[in-house]
Design goal:
By secondary structure, the protein is an alpha/beta fold. The protein has 8 helices and 10 strands.
């Protein structure tokens, strides 16, 4: 039986974009809260409104740059998404606090691939998070890059994370219809995630989205 790679479309900006992504086959939608940099940021009220219109079983991911457990919990309650994507590092004890405050939520920890040390960082994070998402940001930059860069990273490291990690791993960073087939075949992630690769003039592009979904299906069948 062929495995199926899940598809998460990030930077959803309107109710209409959410409906388009769902209609084209997205398994999850990413909704971007306040960030120090990067595309797709919308206010919490709009995130909540979009979440209201997303049918099950489509997952909704709140991308939060908060790093303190209480602030993350407050952000999640305001936005009401079913999954919290932590785009920055949090203290290990934050997970126990967040799970107590938000018992129905799932937590995805983003790890930015900057070198071989990513493998250990991801496996350690997997002890606490429900899934790992590998991206191409630079959290150590003067203005933190926490996603949406449109850059790829070293997929050999990503594959090593998939092989070592006991949790589902999403692959992000510079994906588009032209390279996602190679990415899926090389890395074999649980899911793929993208923002800029299916947008034109900062709007979700139906043709690009359709092409991307088709390339993922072809890679899964290979």
């Amino acid at each position: 039986m062929n495995r199926r790679t899940r598809i998460k479309i990030c930077c959803i900006g309107t109710v209409e974009e959410a409906a388009m992504a769902v209609a084209q086959g997205a398994d999850a939608l990413g909704l971007v809260g306040h960030m120090p940099s990067g595309p797709g940021v919308i206010d919490d009220a709009l995130i909540s409104a979009i979440v209201d219109g997303v049918p099950p079983p489509i997952a909704t991911f709140l991308l939060t740059s908060e790093t303190k457990a209480d602030a993350i919990a407050h952000h999640a309650r305001r936005c009401r998404a079913d999954t919290v994507q932590l785009v920055d590092r949090v203290e290990p004890d934050a997970f126990a606090i967040m799970r107590a405050a938000l018992p129905s939520r799932r937590f995805v920890q983003v790890i930015h691939v900057e070198g071989e040390e990513t493998i250990q960082a991801a496996t350690e994070a997997a002890r606490l998070a429900d899934a790992i998402l590998l991206d191409s940001g630079r959290p150590s930059a003067a203005v933190k890059e926490l996603g949406g860069t449109g850059r790829t990273h070293d997929w050999t490291i990503s594959r090593a994370v998939v092989d070592a990690c006991p949790r589902p791993v999403f692959l992000a960073g510079g994906l588009n219809a032209g390279n996602v087939g190679d990415a899926v075949r090389q890395v074999r992630p649980f899911g793929v995630d993208l923002c800029t690769g299916v947008r034109t003039d900062d709007r979700l592009d139906a043709a690009k989205l359709k092409a991307f979904v088709a390339e993922v299906a072809k890679a899964d069948a290979a």
